[in-house]
Amino acid sequence: MAKSRVTRRQLLVAAAPAAAALPLAKLALDEASAAAPPTGHEGMAMDGFSHAAMIGDDVPAPGGPNERDALLHPPRALARKPGRVREYSLLAYDRVIEVAKGVSFSAWTYNGSVPGPIIRATEDDLLRLTFTNAGSHPHTIHFHGIHPANMDGVFEIVDPGGSYTYEFTARPFGMQLYHCHSTPLKKHIAKGLYGALIIDPPKPRPPAQELVMVLTGFDTDGDGENNFYGVNGPAFYYAKYPIRVRRSQTVRIYLANLTEFDPINSFHLHGEFFRYYPTGSSDLFEYTDTVMLCQGQRGIIEIDFHNTGRFMFHAHQSEFTELGWMGFFEVVD
Amino acid sequence: MPLLLLVGVVSLFASTGTSLLDLVGGAPPPRDEFHIRRVEFKPGEIRIRVTNPQRPELTIASVTVDDAIVPFQTDGPATLDRLRSSTIIVPFQWVDGDPYTVGVTSSSGIETQFAVPAAVEARGTSPRGFLGYAIIGLLVGVIPVALGLGWLPSLRRADARWLAAFMALTAGLLSFLALDAFAEALDLQARLPSGFQGTGLILLGVAASYLGLTFVSQRFSAQRRQGGASPLEGVALATLVAIGIGLHNLGEGLAIGSSLALGELALGTFLIVGFMVHNITEGLGIAAPIAAGERASRARLAALAIVAGGPAILGGWIGGFLTSDLLGVLFFALAVGAALQVVVEVGRYVARRAPGGLRSGHVIGGYLAGVIVMYVTGLLIA
Predict the structure, then answer these.
(1) Does B276 sit within 8 Å of A18, measured CB to CB?
(2) Rounded Cα distance, A155 and A134, in Å
(3) A80-204 sits in which CATH class?
(4) A9, A25, A221 member nearest B278 (Cβ)
(5) H or E element in which residue B238 lies
(6) A205-333 belongs to which homologous superfamily?
(7) How many residue pairs from chains A and B have C-beta atoms closer than 8 A?
(8) What angle, rounded to 10 degrees, do the helices at B160-191 and B234-261 form?
């Protein structure tokens, strides 16, 4: 930039007197020129305050411990009982949330959080969801799964002040999800209207330590690119507050990607492999440590930790990792 | 009395809050963008100087380097009032010569980015640096001007028409410098937050130096002629030329100093030689009016060289250690006013003293030659 400030002051003729000054010029250059600095930049300026230290109290994550447990721990699975009604009520409203330490975001929420609440049912339960729109824009809830056309949340737009009751039989089992389907779609999802819908199989899954992880992104300056990424919301939250799990029992993660703008997101676990059941709708699994998901893609992860200690999990897109999508498991005996 | 009434009306308006403004539509939300003034690379850390350019306060919430959130500290408050600044310190193992983009995100989520084409270590204030800028200033400012004064004996032998041509060349050279400095000032002010009113600052600088020098030259000629409004000549005119050139070199020194400090300028040997040869013409500009008048002592000549070239040293220090775009604008504006005033003064001299006045071929040719010399020198390294 400032380079242009001096370009005018240049010269042509080689003047004899000037040449005499060359040794002096050399000396001056050695003093003040901005040529190559010494190699290596050892020594941190501040103790305990380094780039690698995205762990513990230094991590810039908002909120306190356990504040987000309702979005992390799903309600318990119930055994199959045809004809049972599972009722939920969802309220859409505008709310300013903290998506990274000190950074607020004008979100559109279901029940005040991004992602919205975890909805859970067993296959063949009758799901009845009362939806009220207390927000400033028309919204809907669109569910993934099998249901009648008028329960799909695409044509039945709910204006502000309005409400709608979605009622359908929960199926098929697996990790499903829900999100607003009003247009502009991109805006309604990016603003935060989405959440996890777990449908349990008729034959219950084996007991496990169950977690829900919805991959989120926030475009705080409206330029069509996410500024912050995270699991179930704020950047770096589970880096600051690692998730404690026991080694003795399987860890089951209901994973869904609802990041807007980016074509894909991913989940990678350090120091361990896991079984990945795409969409969680069959017994087929892949044994891996990295899965890739496009928007709306989801699945179930089952981890049997071999070791105790602190293990990182994060998006295997380095950019997302360093913009907040990372966390730790604290595996204990 | 009108002031009291104004206070009354203002307080009455303020008491209505925004209700009157709401009649004509809502105010847009603040932009919440920072003004990133400079990004400095030090061993193991990056320093980002930011200013709040808007009326509402602005809070530094998150900092990224190449789209990665990094821990940071600030040397001042994280919440900045209007036109206040803080330096963000990021511990970072940067790679020499690599491009970096830093981002500063406000608490409202707006990210301001600043791209650095190549990371180069910034040298801080040190006796060595102090000496370095002094030597550079000496090389590009004082020495060439002093050498240029060496043309004085030959100029004295020149006949009146050629002397007038050299005077006109001085005017052409200074006209070029004035326009050059004006462009620099405009460029620089465009980067300032609008709250600083860069264009007003330019006018202030131009007017202050033009009128200030007019006043000084008036005093000179009053001393010499007991009140007669005759044009300056000889050493007095040369002093004025030296002041004009000196103010320009102050701006140049500032630009060189800040560019060097930010690692944006590779000041090679060729460039140094370029500056030196270039500034020899400035010495010629000072020599021409002296040649037309009575003899001047060596001490006098040395003083003139220091007046014209010394500010390059001062500018180097200020630019290297402070780096303020605001000062840069002001200095370049001062240079514009000074150069213009000297052009006018030289013009008056030539009009009265030169054979054939301003319309002679020698004068017109000399003026154009002055501009062309500067233009061609500019082509070389630009």
Answers:
(1) yes
(2) 19
(3) mainly beta
(4) A9
(5) helix B234-261
(6) Cupredoxins -  blue copper proteins (2.60.40.420)
(7) 227
(8) 30
Return the C-alpha torsion angle B49, B51, B57, B62, nearest 10.
-30
Please indicate whether, in this complex, the C-beta atoms of B256 and A50 are within 8 angstroms of each other.
no
Q: In what order do the strands lie in the sheet with B85-91?
A: B35-42, B45-51, B85-91, B73-74
pTM (two decimals): 0.77
Alpha carbon distance A314, A188 (integer Å):
25
DSSP label of A57: G
CB atoms inside a 10 Å sphere around CB A162: 14
Contact B276 A11 (CB under 8 A): yes
DSSP 8-state assignment for residue A139: B
Contact yes or no for B61 and A46 at CB 8 A: no
Q: What are the Cα distances from residue B119, in Å, to A5, B177, B225, B239, B298?
A: 19, 32, 59, 43, 47
CB A229 within 8 A of CB A315: yes
Residue A266: closest CA among A303, A226, A295, A234:
A295
Start and end residues for every CATH 2.60.40.420 domain found in chain A? 80-204, 205-333
Closest CB from A28, A42, A323 relative to B139: A28
Query: Tens digit of pLDDT per residue, chain B (382 long)?
Result: 888 888 888 888 888 776 777 777 767 778 889 999 889 899 999 999 999 988 899 999 999 999 999 999 999 899 999 889 999 999 999 999 899 999 999 999 999 999 998 888 877 667 777 888 888 888 888 888 888 888 888 888 888 888 888 888 888 888 888 888 898 889 888 888 877 888 999 999 999 989 988 888 777 777 665 544 456 667 888 888 888 888 878 877 877 777 776 666 655 566 667 677 767 777 878 888 888 777 778 888 888 888 988 998 888 888 777 767 788 888 888 888 888 887 887 888 788 877 777 888 888 998 999 899 888 876 655 5
The gap from C-alpha B158 to its chain's centroid, in whole angstroms, comes to 35
Helix B234-261 and helix B269-292, axial crossing angle in degrees, nearest 10: 170
Residue with tokens 């350090």: A270
Which residues on A lie below 8 Å from B369 (Cβ)?
A: none
